[in-house]
Amino acid sequence: MKSAVCCSLAVLLLAGCARFEPRPLSAEGAAAQLEDRSLTNGALKVFLERNLQRTISPWPAEAWDFEMLASAAFYYNPSLDVARAQWAVARGGEVTAAELPNPTLNVTPGYDTTTLTPSPWIPLGYVDIPIVTAGKIGYRRAEAAHLSEAARLNIATAAWQVRSDLRASLIDLAAATRREALLQAQLEVQGQVVAALDQQVQVGALAGSEAVPFRIAFQKARLDLADAQRQRADARARVAGAIGVPMRALDPVQLTFDLASDPAAVAELTSAEVRRMALRSRSDILGALAEYAASQSALQLEIAKQYPDVHLEPGYQFDQGDSKWSLGLTVELPVLNQNQGPIAEAKARRQEAAARFLEIQTKVLADIDRAVAVFRATEAGSATLRSLAEAQAKRKAAIEAQFKAGAVERLDLLNAQLEFSTAELVQLDEQAKLHQAARALEDAVQRPLIRPQAIFQSTP
Predict the structure, then answer these.
(1) Cα(47)–Cα(459) distance, rounded to whole angstroms?
(2) Residue 11: which pLDDT band, with cuts at 50, 70 and 90?
(3) Measuring CA to CA, how many Å separate 24 from each of 50, 84, 403?
C-alpha cells in the first residue's frame, strides 16, 4: 500500500515537470531562410491585410506604398523579433515572481548498533515549509509586472525606429532615383552645348579657352551622375535592410514614394496638444515610467526583507520502536544586519530610474522643438524655391518660344534648359529635406499611431 502511494506521488510530480525540446540553430540554415525572404509570401499577404485592414489585390502586389512596406518591415525586421523575445522573457519573470517556494523534505536515516531490541533503527524525517511574510510575493509580482510592461513598450519604441529607418531610406532612394534621371538629362544637354561650342571653335567663331569651363562642367556632370547611381544603389540596399529582406526581393516590385507631394497631416503634428500628448504618451517615456514603478516595487521588496520569513518544520522520528512527532520553527534573527545594504542599493536604483526618466523626457522635448523648428524653416525654404522654380520654368518656356520663332540661337535654348535642370536639382534636394524633416517630426511625437497588432504579435 505504501509503495503504491509513493509511486503515485512520484508519477504526479514527474507529470508536472517540463521537458527539454531541442531547437538547434544553424548559421547556414538561418542564412538560407533569410535569402528566401520575399515580398510575395502568402503569409505576408495575410499579415498586411489584417493590419492595413484592406484587401490587397492582385497579389503579389506590383506597387508598394510606404504603409505596405512599413507593415512588411514589422513582419520581417529582426529587431522587432528581439524586442518581442525580450517581452516574452519579462512575462516569464512574472510567472517566476508569482511562484510560492517549495517545501523541502529532509530524511536522516539512523541505526543504533548497541541496541537491537525492540529496533535498532532511528530514522528522522521532517518537512521544511517556508512561509513568506510581509507581502514579499506581492512586491515581487508588482516589480515583474512593471518590467514586463516596460519590455512591451520597448516593442513600440523598436517599431518606431524601424519605421523611421525605412522612411529615411525610401526618401533617399526616391531622391537619388529622381536625381539620376535629372542628371542624365542634364548630361545630354551639356553634351550638346559642348558639341555646339566645339563647332564654333572649329570655325574660329570662339576661342578654345572659352569652351573649357563648359567641358569641365560636362565632366562634373558625369561624376555627379555616377555619384547619384551609387547613392541610389546604397539607398535601395538600406530599404531592403530596413524591411529585413535581401535586396533582390525588391527587384519585382515598384516602390512608390512621391517627393513632389507635400507630407500629409504635418500641420496638426506641430500643435501644442500633440506636443503635450507626446511628452505624456511616447512609448519610451511610458517605458521609463514603468521601469521607475518597478524600482519602487523593488525598494518595497528590500524593505520587506527586513522581516524574516518563517520556516515550519513538522517532523517524525522512529526511535527504536517509539514514534516521535515534533514541530520545529526556524526564523532568521536580524541582529547583525537589517538588510540595510540592499535597501540602500534599491533606493539608489530608484533615484537612477527617476533621473533616466527625466533625461528621456528632456530629450523628447528637445527633439520635438528641434523637429518643429527644422520643419517650419524647411517648409519656408521649399516655398521660396518653388516660386523660383516656377519663374525658371516660365523663362525656359519663353526662350523655347523665341527659339521656335527664330529670335534666339540653339545655344541660348540649351543654356536655358541647363538653368532649369539646375533649378530642378536644387528643388529636389529641398523636397527631400522637407520629407526628412517631416519624418523627424513624426518620430518626435510618435504620430500617426502604429496599430498594436502589427508589432506585438510574433511572426514566423
Answers:
(1) 9
(2) low
(3) 32, 20, 74
Alpha helices in 77-135 (DSSP H): 78-98
Cβ burial 205-214 (10 Å sphere, 16+ → b, else e)? eeeeeebeeb
Nearest in space to 72 (alpha carbons), one of 101, 89, 88, 49: 49
Q: Is the pLDDT of residue 373 over 80?
A: yes
> What is the residue type of 19?
R
Confirm if 290 and 99 have CB atoms less than 8 A apart.
no
Give kind and range of the element (H or E) at residue 317.
strand 310-319
- Distance between CA 103 and CA 183 in Å, rounded? 78
Beta strands 310-319 and 322-331, pairing class: antiparallel
Which residues make Cβ contacts (< 8 Å) with residue 346, sequence separation at least 6?
A: 295, 298, 299, 301, 302, 303
Q: What per-residue confidence (pLDDT) applies to 15?
A: 56
Using left for φ > 0, alpha for ψ between -120 and 50, and beta otherwise, residue 238 falls in: alpha
Computed from CA positions of residues 187, 193, 197, 202, in that sequence, does the dihedral angle turn out positive or negative? positive
Check residue 1 and give its pLDDT.
45
pLDDT tens digits for range 223-277: 999 999 999 999 999 999 999 999 999 998 899 888 888 786 677 788 888 889 9
d(CA 66, CA 62): 13
Find, among 270, 237, 222, the residue nearest to 376 by Cα: 270
d(CA 117, CA 105): 29
Q: How many other CB atoms are there within 10 angstroms of residue 79's CB atom?
A: 16
Number of alpha carbons in the 13 Å side-chain half-sphere of residue 47? 25
Indicate the domain borders of the chain. 43-454
pTM for the predicted model, two decimal places: 0.86
| pLDDT tens-digit map of 328-363 | 898 988 888 899 999 999 999 999 999 999 999 999
DSSP 359: H
Asked whether the predicted pLDDT for residue 115 surpasses 80, the reply is no
Strand, coil or helix: what is 396? helix
* pLDDT at 2 > cutoff 50: no
CATH topology of domain 43-454: Outer membrane efflux proteins (OEP) (1.20.1600)
Residue 117 pLDDT > 80: no
Count Cβ atoms within 10 A of the Cβ of residue 237 and give its class: 0-12 exposed, 13-18 middle, 19 or more buried: middle
Cα–Cα dist 136/310, whole Å: 13
User: What is the chain's Cα-based Rg?
Assistant: 36
The CA distance from 401 to 63, in Å, is 38
pLDDT of 5 higher than 50: no
